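User: I'm putting together a small comparison set for a docking exercise, and I want a reference complex before I start. The sequence is below, and the ligand is GLP. Could you produce the 3D structure with the ligand included, as structure tokens?
Assistant: Of course. I'll restate your input first, then give the structure tokens for the complex.
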Amino acid sequence: MKITIAKNELEFDTIAAWRIIAEILAHPQAVIGLSTGRTTINMHRIVGEIYRQHPFYLSGITLFGVDEVTNVPREYSGACYTMLKTQIVDALGIKEAQFLMPPTVSNDFEKECRRYEAELKTRGGVDLQVLGLGTNGHLGFNQPGTPFESTTWISAMDEVLEARIRKETNTPPERELGGFTLGLKNIMHSRKIILAAKGVQKAEIVRKMLSGPVTTAVPASILQLHPDCEFLLDVDAAKYIDN
Ligand code: GLP
């Protein structure tokens, strides 16, 4: 297993940003999956800053989101579309055709799931998938209990997150919120993965992910079996791992 431990948060964010840029430089047609959340905000910002100072070729790349909230407007600040657009996509001047996101609204999500997968396949499959880690071990919106064989689907929303989103968007209870997410099987098909986790609140789940059994109770534990996954941690998140 490839484990990288950054000595502080800035080093963590900078390493992650350079990993994304390295992928773009190595593969001009790269298909790169991004994740939202507190872990990835700064790495996204740094990619944009480096690009502004030292522009590189990126008209052939595709950026996409691993997941999205359903049944909220995509302009909502908590929608993954808006987060990625404001954190990295606009800073890189990426055109809409190069930025794939699941729809937030649809009357046939099953069809949209298959369409999303097909679009990624058409572009050659995923070269690099950057993932955050839930404190319960979730990947994307694949919560504990999700089968390892899962493909793109709409998962039930985590209760705490759902309450927050409902409040912020005034979404009435009759409108169901969900998590459109690549499944664990799709994630495992990425050629390369970077699992990024920082902060002491992730330390326990990082330990389980790396040294516990591979179990659906900890979705991220499946990454132990990926041939090219880098676990990028800061010292706090790495606190309990056995050396
Ligand atoms: C949300 C996203 C995940 C992400 C996770 C990590 O649940 N749907 O894709 O990995 O947040 O969040 P944070 O980085 O804020 O801990």
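Helices lie at 9-26, 38-53, 80-89, 109-122, 159-169, 184-188, 203-211. The first helix runs from residue 9 to 26.
User: Thanks, that's exactly what I needed.
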